[in-house]
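Recap for those who missed Tuesday's class. We walked through two folding examples back to back. For each one, the amino acid string is listed first and its predicted structure tokens come directly after. Nothing is annotated here on purpose, so try labeling regions yourself before you check the end of the notes.
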Amino acid sequence: MTLKKSKFPNRLLVLPNAKYFFSKIQTTNDLWKVARIFDCDGVATVFITSIGAFGFIFPDSSNLASIDVLKYSGNGSTPPEVMENEDDIHDLQLRRMLFVNFVSAAFFGRVSAKTHRSLAGALYSGQDKIAGFNITQGAVSIQWTELIAKSIKAKVNYLNSVKWRYYFLRDSEIDDGISYIKNILQRQNNFEYADLQSCMVMNYQAAILHNQQHAAASLALNFSVIESLAWEIFIDYGLVDETTPKPFAIKKHNIAKVSKTTFNKMSISKVIEILYKGNLFNDYFYQRVSNIREKRNKLMHKGAIISPKDSGDCQTIVRDLWAFLIDTPFELIAGWSYLR
């Protein structure tokens, strides 16, 4: 029996968007020039290229740092430590992909809101669409895979369209998006109930599903985010005994505190009702949330039909809930096309 160790790669590259470009492109070589480099709170160093590919390098000090890969050769059953190591590798890559998509969601959600455009060209980065990369003389060279090659080829072809100029980001927009990612990374430390990164990624996934007219899946996913954010608002506004309002909890209300026992027994409908009756939610917002909650229940219990309009309404509700918890403008709202 032989066990060999090797280091799992500490870097990966994704193409998170099919439309946005990050610097002027005159020749094919310009596509891979590094337009920005920034640090994500020690978790990863991010390299953005002109074409819009995001490269992530995870340092040894990161909670997403590379670990050893165990390879077994020999007769007999696979040793337990090798099987456990395989699980550890899967877990690491899963957490990395969550972080990668969180960065994409935070950046493009900010860009979309600031430019007053729906989320355009969003691509969800799965483990099937990643590549290794290196950096030489201010440019990125990637280790091509079939799936990422198709996505990049499609984006290069998009350069031939006049429309691409609408999605050329100015330096100020790029810098603001990067600053926003850093701001969100700090804000997540104040969350006590919801996982900010996971919620933002689910909201991002739901926006992509809505754009593809997978309305039921989009609504179901976004309603999970609605529930998590509503609970988070309740806690962050100091509405539970022994909690105090967070610095960002600035909207006025007249809600009395509840005990921890009461809070733990409350349903999501009760949480929403209290936030409404205490004037954190206005009449129109409460009506919209209640309507979506009914549609979600009918979907889950009766398989009711959900329309793109329903999933679009759900998106705007999530956008409005984010405004209680993170700096605005920010919205992961995508449009959808249809024929008349």
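Example two. Treat it independently of the first, because the proteins are unrelated.
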Amino acid sequence: MALDPSLKGRFRWILKNYHNTLNNMQITKEMDFIKRTVDSFSDINISQNDQSISTRTGKIHQTPRIRYYPNGLLFTNVYHQIEMGDILLIYKYVVNGTLIYYRGVIVQVKHTNTKKHTWHIDSNQFKFLVNWPIFEIVLPRCNRYFYIQPQMLSWATYTFVGKNATRYPIYYSSSRMAQHRRMQNLQMMPNRDFSFSVKPHFNWDCSGSYFMKFIQGLIGENLLKNNNARDLVHNICIMSGLEPDPPGEPDWREFKKSDEETFGVIEFTVKRNIQSENSLINEKPF
């Protein structure tokens, strides 16, 4: 899906302002970055010719935690309890009121105060974000199991931030990180944390290009094909106070709110109105 050049230029201006908010004051921790990112993309509504870009955002004041079973067996003592991530990005492309593309990305934020381009990675969480074995959400409590089986490498993405280390956030998928480290068998990987180093502007996705690719539908899991991933996205939307669209039927229980942790949800919607039916030939859903 090609964006109108003028609309693309206006969105780049929004990205420039977003980067200014990150650079004007040093990022202190992951939660600080999440808040600034969600606030920067709140209530965007721009249009040009027959296209428009709008956003809506939500926050969960208690970072979802999950329990996953690395051996694929439920109800055993072999499991790990970890944080699922920090940000959910959602992309929708709507043509004449019909949803054509629908994608989602789970983002894990990693922050450093040092000048080195090296970040601390939790081994158990890394295994989960690469393999996505069967899991349950334990905070807030949800009596359901999920088995996502994502097809896109960009479904689970790390964001590396730190003003001293990188000027702009750097996005890199967990699967590509595994390939970069030549981790062929993560199940055999020792259960200890490790460090991961990046080289800015060399085969890495900086923030501006990443968001531009995302709102053109080039990044993320196809939620029109992956019903399991779509179900999880709908559940997270409910937690953040956003009504999922298209609607789902999640069953979340009451959860205790806390200001200590924050999970952000950002939904981008690109709409296009086409008058001629012949113009719809290339606008087919997946």
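Answers for example two:
The radius of gyration is 19 Å.
Residues 191 and 205 are 28 Å apart (CA to CA).
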